[in-house]
Write a structure and sequence with these properties.
The protein is α+β, with helices and mostly antiparallel strands. Helices cover 41% and strands 12% of the residues. The strands form two sheets. Strands 3-4-2-1-5-6 form a six-stranded mixed sheet. A five-stranded mixed sheet has the order 7-8-9-10-11. Helix 8 runs antiparallel to helix 9 and helix 8 crosses helix 10. It is globular, with a radius of gyration of 28 Å. The N terminus is likely disordered.
């Protein structure tokens, strides 16, 4: 790697570390009482004494029940079986602190509004009232943003630019190879020799690039007047203030919503105008996977959540693995830092589900897909408790705290992990 690429990578990592400094959306003790606990521990004896005094201060505040910063739960609305967060700051917090959910109009991070504002040039947006009378065709006039106000490009834009550059590189390389073949055959013309030299210089310079990409302006190839909005974009911009209407929301998986409620207690689940407790939420999530009026011990949601909670408690960032045909993806830190290392498939114990629950043809297909993207395939076998044992805990919990009851319930599930690898005879010979 070139020195410049290494420097840019370090700068990007520092920027990401600052944004995603918290692995979970919880308020730490220092933040709760307004005490800075980020003092480096290795600043000599005075630094250590200062650090320990701050810890004692936090402990005293906690014991004396000193007024602390009140945590505001994040509202999660349940509509048609979908758990959605539509408040922008809450969406950002859940993504930056634990990578929960997915923006429905984005690849992963909920940045549709940011990308659309950049596309429509709405940064520092101000509608000119003097132009209202002349705006006969209904085109909203928007003030262009100053260069200093331009936002950093979103990851989607950078990815698109890199793909365009790679496509252009492959096209030029193919043309060069065809000309080289003609040269070896002695069929090349003088003009083609000049073109071959130009292509060769282009490819050499491209390989020397520092890894940066050039983002073309949205209006570079457009015939529209700069500063004017397309007619089809008018419906997402308010006429009075020229502000962009937020169309995107953050969609949570059922296991994510239950984890945020049961394990972290950082959200308020709103269903049909009322707030759901942990037990009611458990019943609702199980009903999404089964029409049975009673909760069964081997309900698919319970099996999925046990595995999700297990890996989250081990420090892994757990995301949906549907794009690779699995249940979960495991990241060491999160999607912006590196690719997922493992794909997880949740499998119920055969003694309960029966042998037919395992489709070996499907399992082989999944293994080929996972192997093709250079990931490890993990099978997690979940052994559910007997239904009688499950009912004794769930139905006889009158007066018991919901959290303690669910904790006792989940502790009855057992997990076994197996790494699945395809046997390749040519690589495993003696």
């Amino acid at each position: 790697m070139h020195a410049f690429e290494s420097l840019m990578a370090k700068k990007s990592t520092r920027h990401l570390n600052k944004i995603h400094r918290k692995p979970l959306p919880i308020l730490l003790a220092g933040e709760k009482y307004g005490i800075d606990l980020k003092t480096p521990y290795n600043k000599g004896i005075l630094g250590r004494i200062s650090y320990w005094l701050k810890l004692v201060q936090v402990a005293l505040f906690s014991l004396c029940r000193t007024a602390a910063v009140k945590e505001q739960p994040i509202d999660v609305f349940v509509e048609n079986g979908i758990f959605k967060v539509d408040e922008l700051s809450s969406m950002t917090r859940l993504w930056q602190e634990g990578f929960f959910g997915k923006g429905v109009l984005s690849r992963s991070a909920p940045n549709w509004k940011e990308r659309t504002m950049a596309r429509l040039n709405l940064v520092g947006q101000d509608q000119d009232p003097d132009n209202n009378d002349d705006n006969d065709v209904g085109v909203v006039v928007v003030a262009a943003a100053a260069p200093s106000q331009q936002q950093d490009p979103a990851k989607e834009e950078l990815t698109k630019a890199r793909r365009n550059e790679r496509a252009e590189f492959k096209k030029k390389r193919s043309e060069l190879q065809q000309l080289q073949l003609k040269q070896r055959q002695g069929l090349i013309a003088e003009e083609e020799l000049k073109q071959m030299k130009i292509l060769d210089e282009f490819l050499v310079e491209f390989r020397k690039k520092d890894g940066s990409v050039v983002l073309l302006s949205q209006n570079s190839s457009s015939q529209e007047t700069p500063g004017r909005m397309r007619v089809e974009d008018e419906s997402i911009v308010t006429e009075s203030s020229g502000d962009l209407i937020q169309l995107e929301f953050l969609q949570l998986q059922a296991v994510e919503a239950f984890f945020l409620k049961f394990a972290l207690n950082q959200v308020r689940i709103v269903f049909e105008g009322s707030s759901l407790g942990a037990k009611d939420l458990l019943r609702h999530c199980c009903s999404l996977y089964s029409a049975s009026p009673t909760i069964e011990a081997d309900n698919k949601f319970l099996l999925n959540y046990v595995v999700y909670h297990y890996f989250r408690s081990k420090g892994w960032c757990v995301r949906s693995g549907i794009k690779f045909g699995s249940d979960y993806l495991l990241y060491k830190r999160g999607p912006p830092f590196q690719h997922a290392e493992y794909c997880v498939s949740v499998i119920q114990d055969n003694e309960v589900a029966g042998f037919d629950a395992v489709d070996w043809f499907q399992m082989s297909s999944q293994a080929r897909v996972v192997g093709g993207v250079k990931k490890y395939f993990i099978h997690v076998y979940v052994e559910a408790p007997r239904q009688q044992e499950f009912d004794e805990i769930y139905l006889n919990a009158d007066g018991e705290d919901d959290g303690l009851m669910i904790k006792k319930l989940l502790s009855r599930y057992k997990i076994s992990e197996v790494i699945y690898r395809r046997w390749n005879p040519s690589r495993t010979r003696d």
